[in-house]
Amino acid sequence: MGNSIDIESRKQISFDLKQDLLKEYYPNPKLSKSQGHHKNAYKDIKKFFKKEGWEHRQGSVYASKQAMTHLSVLRMVDKLAQQMPWLHKCIEVNGIDITDIGDNYSLYKDLQNSTISVESFEEPELGLGKEIENKKTLSDIMDEIRSKQPVDVPDVADKIPPLGRGGGSFER
Question: For the chain, which domains are there?
Answer without folding.
Answer: 4-101 (3.30.70.240), 108-159 (no CATH)
